[in-house]
Write a structure and sequence with these properties.
Shape of chain A: elongated
Strand content of chain A: 25-35%
Strand order of the largest sheet of chain A: 13-12-11-8-14-6-15-19-18
Mean pLDDT of chain A: 93
Number of helices of chain A: 12
Oligomer: homodimer
Structural class of chain A: alpha/beta
Helix content of chain A: 25-40%
Largest interface: A-B, 54 and 54 residues
Amino acid sequence: MRAAFNIAKTADFRLVRPNPLVGAVVASSDGNILGEGCHEKFGAAHAEVNAIQNALKHTNDLSACTLYVTLEPCSHQGKTPPCTDFIMRNGIKKVVMGSSDPNPLVSGATVLKEAGVNVEVHNYPALLDMNREFFVNQLHQRPYVVLKMATTIDGKIADRNGKSKWLSNEESRIYVHEHLRTEADAILTTYHTVLKDNAQLTIRKSDGSVLDKDIIIIDRDFQLLKPENAGLSIFKSHPHSTIFLFGLHKHMNDVPKNVKIIFTDFDQEGNIKLDAMLKMLLEQKHYKILVEAGSKLATQMMIHDCIDEMKLFVAPVVFLDNQAISIFNHDHYTSLLDTKKFQLSGVHPFASDVLLSYVKKSL
Amino acid sequence: MRAAFNIAKTADFRLVRPNPLVGAVVASSDGNILGEGCHEKFGAAHAEVNAIQNALKHTNDLSACTLYVTLEPCSHQGKTPPCTDFIMRNGIKKVVMGSSDPNPLVSGATVLKEAGVNVEVHNYPALLDMNREFFVNQLHQRPYVVLKMATTIDGKIADRNGKSKWLSNEESRIYVHEHLRTEADAILTTYHTVLKDNAQLTIRKSDGSVLDKDIIIIDRDFQLLKPENAGLSIFKSHPHSTIFLFGLHKHMNDVPKNVKIIFTDFDQEGNIKLDAMLKMLLEQKHYKILVEAGSKLATQMMIHDCIDEMKLFVAPVVFLDNQAISIFNHDHYTSLLDTKKFQLSGVHPFASDVLLSYVKKSL
């Protein structure tokens, strides 16, 4: 399984996504590896097929072999034929799976068992970790959500008047552009954040070029479509992408060409119904989104357990002011046992800032 | 100067303190190093003397040589005779100093200049950093103060009822004992912290042994001396050290043998007058203290700019609760410009906790 894990990681996840990284190994009864393979590219052959085909170069008889595969093989016709058929057709009698596939269309373990194949299913944490985005997409039918925040040492994101510009340093901001924004399919924000900083939310590359990605803006009353906001930078800075405005149904006039209006529900407190919005975003092929907003949206998402990863840039300053705005702000008693649990996944100093990366403890 | 800096660091600061680390180099007119030396031990010869004595093994005539020394040479009789005398007696005509000595008794630069020696004084940040404790002791006439806190990702140290026990993990706690408590001369806390957890504040070593250090407790009304508190662990766990109780003058009965009462001033809000207390602690040879207390004392010390170093253990949890207790808690408007400035000095993951170390930006 370790060999299968290692070969899985040789693929470039950017070519594979939204599929997961998968590796497979065919081993002889005495434990020698006869063939290995990975899923190299979205739409291309699955890892099991590649591994079996490589093994067939050495021997015609795989009946005494075991197939180790990091993820449960597919049993349905997708971009490629079902892997379970290919496994059985080649006479493999034992399959060990490193993780089960959460997609209900995939029932490879059951199909193989029913056909008399000896099946072992594990759920190794390292294999779940390798494909966190895929598992979140499948399990929760929503994008993988990354929350980015710039905070002080004492957990404040803005002064009590909401001022926060340039809290983090230049090195941190470069990382946001070159990595966090670049690696997301879209950026989620609120009309308030866009208005406050006249934010562009583009990707400034180190070579001076500027790229734009889809932007999702929560804007219940379509404030951004008011005539006085027609000059906002965001409308001009997104010529190659779409700005999705999520709001309540109301009569409206002109909508800029790169803006797509989506009518959705809000609760009585004015909070968007997150589940519906996130499901819609996944349907729009936004597999991974970066949240760049204020405390209110971050808190709502945290309460609903839909922050999969946090990227906190901690600036080397202390606010002291207990009315300065905190990262999260929920007036609800929480005990030490009820805290939201994360796992430290990385630590990265940028001069005197430090980036703390966390992933959600349970998928 | 780089050579002098490097030789300074070869000494063990634990043997040297409360003196600073100092290195010196005697260089010929063509830039060759003829002798070098450092201050090796408290009470032993100063770096300049060692460097000059080593140079004299190569030549009798140092009149064309330059002395590079990381700290301004002393000009007064201390544990050893004044270094300025020794420099002049050996005919050295040029002295370059990497940092000036903040002790008013030390006026080596002036003494040498008046004797016709060519003197250059710098204040290189790396040299100030190397002796931060010494400079703080000298400049501010108080101990070097290290604040230790265990916080959540969102800057909370306890739930809204003050519960905080075991927020940080075992690896973090080992580090507190083996490093932070071990390296301080005393631990500063409040009666409230002692009462809340029945804290022992000892040093548990990895070999199972337990050491005790001086404890300083702010206890305005001498609550800990009330009969009902006689059984507190702290009185039993400090057989080899002293517990200093800082409070207001009041009639009192029995005082345990290892307790020393110190009467001091408090302001109208019940806060101890920090300056007086810290000055007294330095006089008691507490050159470096570790603060392990709650938000109130931490905030007071931060407001008064007397936190020289922060050690924050960040646990991988989020509280969300805006009434949970923050690291600092001061109801006073602070703008982004008025924040307290620090510098990241280290990052150390302990499993899923991370220790962020900061030093004050200006000494």
